[in-house]
Design a protein that fits this description.
Radius of gyration: 14 Å
Order of helices and strands: HHEEHEEEEH
Distance between the termini: 21 Å
CATH class: Alpha Beta
Mean pLDDT: 91
Strand order of the largest sheet: 2-1-6-5-4-3
Strand content: 35-45%
Low-confidence stretches: none
Number of strands: 6
Helix content: 25-40%
Shape: globular
Largest sheet: 6 strands, mixed
Length: 135
């Protein structure tokens, strides 16, 4: 299952459409009982979202400040049921027009081929450490 999880995650993240997630579309890789923990945005730190509705709500909250937002997958690390994805996020703020770019990483935990839990990190090294991995 280890390579299958990585392949499925890569396929999802390479075609990720945040607008689709806001509508609860394209969540077939997520377990219905999925939990997402946001640690990247200062006003969202410590928030936990449950189920597909929670992921849709978190996605809407996370993207609301942006006029334009892209999340480019750089790499996936790990094997088995615990993976880390590292991305470059680029965006333009909706009201100020300020452009920003930076890394974000997610630790993904699978159960029976579905994502049961994922958590965001501003620092990819922290995500790798939490997952017990190294680059």
């Amino acid at each position: 299952m280890s390579q299958e999880n990585a392949d499925r995650l890569r396929a999802l993240l390479e075609r990720l459409d945040v607008d689709a997630w806001k509508r609860r579309d394209d969540m077939s890789l997520l377990d219905p009982e999925v939990t997402y923990e946001d640690t990247t945005l200062p006003d969202h730190v410590g928030e936990t979202y449950r189920g597909h509705d929670g992921v849709a709500r978190a996605t809407a909250r996370w993207t609301e400040a942006y006029e334009r937002l892209t999340i480019q997958l750089e790499r996936i690390l790990g094997s088995g049921d615990r993976l880390v994805s590292v991305h470059t996020v680029r965006g333009r703020a909706r009201y100020s027009g300020i452009e920003a770019e930076g890394p974000v990483a997610y630790v993904w935990t699978f159960r029976n081929g579905k994502v049961l839990h994922f958590q965001s990190y501003r620092d990819p090294k922290e995500a790798l450490e939490v997952a017990g991995l190294r680059e």
